[in-house]
Structures are given as structure tokens and as C-alpha cells.
UniProtKB/TrEMBL annotation:
Catalyzed chemical reaction(s): dTDP-beta-L-rhamnose + NADP(+) = dTDP-4-dehydro-beta-L-rhamnose + NADPH + H(+)
Organism: Pseudoduganella buxea
Entry-linked Pfam families: RmlD_sub_bind
Protein name, UniProt field: dTDP-4-dehydrorhamnose reductase
Pathway: Carbohydrate biosynthesis; dTDP-L-rhamnose biosynthesis
Domain RmlD-like substrate binding, residue spans: 445-703
Coiled coil: none
Length: 740
């Protein structure tokens, strides 16, 4: 049986004289409770950092073993074998570098000290991805020592591989049974015929680290002329022939960027993909009309070349939740496919369990860009995602249960291209599972509120994310009519229902309370009862207007409700009754919508008025937390897939008055806002009482980007909508702000 392993992103990466540590960002260094979480996933082993740069930056004599002394035995006691990593996308302490001839011997000294302290540890990865690291540090100039030549690349590669050989020698002097798990990126390059020589070269170069360790690089190796031309002494290479250290497990790291397409027609591609040689180098998923079949054929190549045990040692994609699940599931199935054909496949590793930071800029800066993994760190404590549940299912042999696995990942969908699709015989037909998925019926998400802002946004984003959905009008499903809801569930067999409709006219509700209560309170309760009976997930929305504003600061989920108006009362009643009858319901409180697709939200209206020089009144004493609709929908879908429940506050996280919001977006858009009339709420003649301070914060997790970030993306999206002449406009959304 193929085991499930896990990995912890522990990179300590150097860019010039600055170090970037993932564990400074993910907090694991101060949270030993994570180990219990990891064990609960069912993993048999974990790639775990005991990094040279952190443990012994000033030499073995001054090493601080406190962290490792606590963590490694704890993992052993939990039944999780540590695969100890010593250097991970790093270059060692400040006194050395990847091109320092002493890098290898000094690393070996550290490796021997680790083994002496933990003689029971069986698995080691002394250097992660030596070929990949050498490319980024010695050829592309991205990481220290920022080389940009074949010579520096090869020096860095040879020094790292020598470090692996010497480290394993030192480790095995303590523990003769220690095993080397040697990782590197498993990719493949395809190309137009004009660039076949480049593709062939790249496809040979990807093996270099493993070939060196296996002792197969000599005068007969395909890349020998290239190596000799670089200026590397032959003796440095032939040393490996005389000192082979083949991996006990060949570790294969696989990402969506691992497979590349080279195209001599650079003008067909976005400029960022065209390099100094004038041709495009782009991930195949973004270019090839027929997607590659994935990792399975690449594993076949590894098995044919080495005949050594294999493990997929990193499997991760930076994507929406459903595509993270689809990626892992596809990789898991591929590993089993290769094993069935006779290859020795040991494990699949989920990377990274706590997510990772700033890999979108190759960890060259601390921008705070976060990709979550099996756990999401945007909560007070690491929050298990749907990926954690899938891991538990795979590790225990259960069938994956998430309905979103029924869809295709973005890398197999028609909308994936960043250029005119390239038809080529170099790729193989789509996966059989892909063809079957297109034929079978999938469970949809039912979305009520077909004509509203939220319903329209959910439909749009579900389509983008390849989540099957059905938007229902009131005639198709009256949420306040039990018979109508039952009929819809029987007809469509949904896995989830999103209640995106309801009564939204806050001020009219004062004179129309019966209808407001029917749609906002009775309807969600009817849905909750039906969903509980049929085991269907339910998402319904509440409002900041369940609060009276007297707190004077942002409200969190556990604060008591005290609505001031009929609309708020209807939402508070819905919350109470829904969670009583169906505690698994996800209830999202939010407020102050704005978005690019409907023309009747506050931000859009104020920009239009200011652009036309018309006066526009906005309350300067009502404080809210504006919410960008696309962010809200994306986050809600992730939380639904994660099976989150109870009340969540979702907004873009900043408390501002309506008038301040108007001024800020006008400033960002470069629009004169001198016609803006900032007034007290009493001057705006509201029918419904308004809380003075109803901004939302969260004690469960800050899941959405900042307000400034959202406003910038709103302006970009509006510009794109105008360019495309988009007519997808939702119905008017009456909000609780003032305008004239």
C-alpha cells in the first residue's frame, strides 16, 4: 500500500545578505501542538526541517539543539517517522555558500552531529532539490550567491551533491541503516521542432543531481561535453563515479510549473514568459491544447532510468480549495497507476501541511502571500481544511468523499490558456478519468436568488471554478415553502445550497415586516430543516445589522446581538433558529457589498456620481466594514468545501464610514470627490434605525484580503468589464448607506 506522507515548508532562503525563514512566518517553531495535528492526518512520515542555518549557524560547538530535541522524539512517539532535512532551498550559514568548496565537508560535519544526537532517525534529505536550487542560485541569479552562468550552476550542483554524499557517509557512520531520500523537481520540457535541441538539453539536465549521486556521470554521459565546456574540472565530476551514493528513495517533487513548453514564436505569449533567448518558456497547462497526462509517465521514466524506489515527496498547487483536492487526488491515483505496472512506489507527500509564504515571488521578499495547505493559518489556531479530510480518507483507505472531486482541475479546463492554444503531437491524450468526468452527472450547488447581486456572483464564480451549480428563481424554489424546497432537492440532488436571496430593502422593511420576516427568517429555517434531513450543506447570509453599534469597536462572532430595525431582527431570528435545527449550517455575517458586476452598489454609484460632477451624500458617522463581493464568494465557497459551520464574519477587515469609503475609492481611481457631501445619518432621513458602529471583525479567522487590496482589484475589474462590454449586471441591491 502506498503510504501518505506530509511535509513542512521550512525554507531558510538567502537573498543577498537577507534570510527569509518560512518558520518565522508559519509560527510552527513555537507551536509543538502542530505535531498532534499532523499525526491526526494519518501520515506515516513527515519531511521535517532540522536546518543547518538555524541549528548551528556558528558551528557545531555552538549548536542549539533545543528545538530538535523536543520535536523529533515527539514525532517518533506519535508514530510519524521524521525524514530529516538539513538544507532546504538554502545555502547554509553565512560563512559558507553553495559555491564554497567547503560547503560539502562542513554540511557533513553537521549531518554527523545530527545523527549522533538522534541515532534512531532512519530517513534523511541532507539537501533538498539540489538541481533546482542550483538553477535558481547559480543560473538564474534569484537566490544567493546569485550566479548567472553554467559554471556557477554546476559548481553549486556539485557542491550540494558532494554534501549529500559526505553527509550520508557521516550519518551512516553512526547509523548504518540510515536511508537517503533524495528529492528534486520532476519535470519535463516539450517544444516546437525549432527548439528541440533546447528541450532535449533541459530534459537531460533534470537528471543531473540523481545521476551524479548514482555515479553515472562520466565521459559517456550525454552532458559531459556541456560540463567540460563550462570549466568544471573533470576530477570534480568523476569523484562521484568513485563515491556513489544512490538514493534509497528517489524523491519526486511535482508542481503545475514542472512541465514546460518552449516555443520559438515569442510574440504569441505574455512578455513575462519570454526570456533572453527570445523564445517562450511557459507551463504546459497554460499553452498546450491537449493537456499532458500528468505525473504518471514521468514516474515511468524515473523507474526506467534508475530502477530505484520512488516517492512523490512534494505535491501541492496554489489554487482554490477544490483544485487543491483535485491535484492531490490526481497525483495519488497516478502513483497507484505506476505501482500497478510494477514500479516500486512508496509514498505520496502532501506539501506543505501548514501552507507556505511568498513562493509567488520565489521567496525573494516577505510580501505575506499565503498558500494554505492541510491547515489554514489565518485562524487563531491552524484550521483543518478539506485537504486534511481528504488526507485522512486516503491514509485510511476510504473513498474520497468531497463532491468537488467530480469536477476537473483548472489545468484540464478550456479556460486555462494564456496564449493561443498550441496543438502538438508531443502531448498525449487526456486522462481516462477526465473523459469519464465529462460524461457523468455531478452533484450541483443550488443557489437561490437568481437575480440578486450575491446569486449572480456565486453563479459567475462557480462557473470559473468548475463547481457544478444551478441558480434557481423563486418560482423554481421558494425557500419559505417546505414543499418547494423538498421538490428542488429531489430534482437536483445537490451537495450544498447557497441561500443568496432574501429581502434586502433595509428601510422598506420597516413598513413591510411580514414579507421581510418570511424571506429572511422563515425561509432559511425551512432550508435548514430540509438540509439537515438530506445531509446537504447549507450556507446562508446574515448582516452586521444584528448589532446595535453600542460596543464602539468591531464586533466578533460571539458578541450578543441586539438589532435596531426590522431587517436586523429578521436576520437575528434566522441565525438563532437555523443553528438550532441545523448546527452544521454555515452562517456568514457580512455588510456593505461592493463589486464590479452590479451597477447599484455604493462604491460604483459614488464613482459614477463623482465622475459626472453630481453631488452624492454619504454618512460620515456610520462605520461599517466594506465587503468586496468576489472575495466574499470565493471565501464562502472555500469554507463550504471545508465543511465549516456556525457563524463567521467575512469582510475586507477595516472599519470605515461610508464617507471615508467614498473618499478612499475616489482617491485610488483618481476621481475628484469635491461633490461628495459627508453628512450625519440624521440628515439622510433613514426610515430604519442604523447602528453607529457595525464593523465586523473575526475571532475565527481573517480570511479575506485588505480593503485597499480589494478596492484596487475592484477598479481593475471594472475597467476589464468596460473593455469587454460586460452586460452581466445584477438587480439593484438596497443597502443601508445614504445617497442622493
Amino acid at each position: 500500500m502506498i503510504e501518505l506522507w506530509g511535509g513542512l515548508e521550512g525554507t531558510v532562503n538567502r537573498v543577498r545578505d537577507q534570510y527569509f525563514s518560512q518558520m518565522d512566518q508559519n509560527g510552527h517553531g513555537n507551536r509543538i501542538s502542530d505535531l498532534d495535528r499532523f499525526a491526526a492526518l494519518g501520515i506515516k512520515a513527515i519531511r521535517y526541517p532540522v536546518l543547518w542555518e538555524l541549528t548551528a549557524p556558528d558551528g557545531i560547538a555552538n549548536a542549539d539543539w533545543t528545538w530538535a530535541d523536543e520535536r523529533l522524539p515527539a514525532l517518533r512517539d506519535l508514530g510519524v517517522a521524521p525524514i530529516v532535512g538539513l538544507v532546504h532551498h538554502g545555502s547554509g550559514p553565512r560563512h559558507t555558500s553553495l559555491v564554497d568548496p567547503e560547503f560539502g565537508p562542513q554540511l557533513a560535519e553537521y549531518a554527523g552531529a545530527v545523527a549522533a544526537r538522534f541515532p534512531w532517525v532512519e530517513y534523511y534529505t541532507p539537501v533538498n532539490e539540489p538541481c533546482t536550487t542550483a538553477r535558481f542560485a547559480g543560473l538564474y541569479g534569484v537566490w544567493y550567491p546569485h550566479g548567472k552562468s553554467d559554471l556557477v550552476f554546476l559548481q553549486a550542483l556539485i557542491n550540494q551533491c558532494k554534501g549529500v554524499v559526505l553527509s550520508m557517509r557521516a550519518i551512516r557512520a553512526v547509523n548504518p541503516n540510515a536511508k537517503l531520500v533524495q528529492t528534486d523537481d520532476l519535470g519535463k520540457t516539450y517544444s516546437t521542432p525549432e527548439l528541440a535541441d533546447w528541450a532535449d538539453f533541459y530534459n537531460e539536465r533534470r537528471w543531473l543531481a540523481w545521476d551524479l549521486l548514482c555515479g553515472t556521470v562520466d565521459e559517456d554521459h550525454t552532458l559531459w561535453p556541456y560540463i567540460m565546456k563550462s570549466g568544471i574540472p573533470a576530477a570534480d565530476v568523476l569523484w562521484f563515479r568513485d563515491n556513489p551514493c544512490p538514493p534509497d528513495v528517489v524523491g519526486l517533487n511535482y508542481y503545475i510549473t514542472s512541465e514546460r513548453w518552449l516555443d520559438h514564436r515569442g510574440d504569441r505569449f505574455p512578455a513575462r514568459y519570454v526570456g533572453e533567448h527570445g523564445f517562450a518558456d511557459i507551463e504546459t497547462a497554460r499553452a498546450l491544447a491537449t493537456p499532458t497526462p500528468g505525473i504518471a509517465p514521468l514516474m515511468d521514466e524515473v523507474w526506467e532510468r534508475y530502477g530505484l524506489p520512488m516517492a512523490i515527496t512534494e505535491a501541492h498547487i496554489d489554487a482554490n480549495r477544490e483544485d487543491q483536492l483535485r491535484w492531490l487526488h490526481e497525483v495519488w491515483n497516478a502513483a497507484h497507476e505506476v505501482q500497478r505496472k510494477g514500479a516500486d512506489v512508496r509514498a505520496v507527500t502532501v506539501w506543505s501541511l501548514l501552507g507556505s509564504y511568498d513562493w509567488n515571488c520565489l521567496v525573494t521578499e516577505c510580501r505575506g502571500y499565503y498558500e494554505n495547505g492541510a491547515y489554514d493559518l489565518r485562524a487563531p489556531e491552524p484550521r483543518p481544511t478539506a485537504l486534511a479530510r481528504l488526507m485522512q480518507e486516503l491514509s485510511s483507505g476510504r473513498a474520497p468523499s468531497s463532491p468537488v472531486l467530480q469536477g476537473l482541475g483548472w489545468w484540464r479546463r478550456p479556460g486555462r490558456f494564456l496564449c493561443p492554444p498550441v496543438a502538438t503531437s508531443a502531448t498525449v491524450a487526456a486522462l481516462p478519468a477526465e473523459r469519464l468526468a465529462a460524461q457523468r452527472t455531478v452533484q450541483p450547488i443550488l443557489i437561490s436568488g437568481a437575480t440578486g447581486t450575491l446569486g449572480s456572483a456565486f453563479a459567475r464564480i462557480c462557473e470559473e471554478r468548475n463547481l457544478a451549480f444551478r441558480v434557481l428563481t423563486r418560482q423554481e424554489m421558494d425557500i419559505a415553502d417546505p414543499a418547494s424546497v423538498e421538490a428542488a432537492i429531489q430534482q437536483y440532488k445537490p451537495w450544498a445550497i447557497v441561500n443568496a436571496g432574501g429581502y434586502v430593502r433595509v428601510h422598506d422593511a420597516e413598513q413591510d415586516s411580514q414579507r421581510c420576516l418570511r424571506e429572511n427568517a422563515q425561509g432559511p429555517v425551512v432550508l435548514a430543516i430540509a438540509c439537515a434531513r438530506h445531509q446537504v450543506r447549507l450556507l446562508t447570509f446574515s448582516s452586521d445589522l444584528v448589532f446595535d453599534g453600542s460596543k464602539g469597536s468591531a464586533y466578533v462572532e460571539s458578541d450578543p446581538v441586539a438589532p435596531l430595525n426590522v431587517y436586523g431582527q429578521s436576520k437575528a431570528e434566522a441565525e438563532r433558529r437555523v443553528l438550532t435545527v441545523n448546527p452544521d449550517t454555515l452562517v456568514v455575517r457580512t455588510s456593505a457589498f461592493f463589486g464590479p458586476w452590479d451597477k447599484h452598489n455604493f462604491v460604483t454609484l459614488v464613482l459614477q456620481a463623482m465622475s459626472e460632477g453630481r453631488q452624492f451624500a454619504a454618512a460620515d458617522d456610520l462605520v461599517v466594514s466594506p465587503t468586496y463581493v468576489p472575495d466574499l464568494v470565493q471565501t464562502c465557497l472555500d469554507l463550504m468545501i471545508d465543511r465549516e459551520r456556525g457563524i463567521w464574519h467575512l469582510s475586507n477587515g477595516e472599519a470605515v464610514s461610508w464617507a471615508e469609503l467614498a473618499r478612499r475609492v475616489c482617491a485610488m481611481a483618481g476621481v475628484d470627490c469635491s461633490a461628495l457631501m459627508a453628512q450625519p445619518a440624521t440628515a439622510l432621513d433613514f426610515q430604519a434605525a442604523q447602528p453607529r458602529f457595525s464593523a465586523l471583525a473575526s475571532e475565527r479567522g481573517n480570511m479575506m484580503p485588505s480593503l485597499d487590496d480589494a478596492l484596487q482589484r475592484y477598479l481593475q475589474a471594472v475597467a476589464e468589464v468596460r473593455r469587454q462590454g460586460d452586460t452581466h449586471v445584477g438587480a439593484a441591491q438596497a443597502a443601508h448607506y445614504g445617497s442622493s
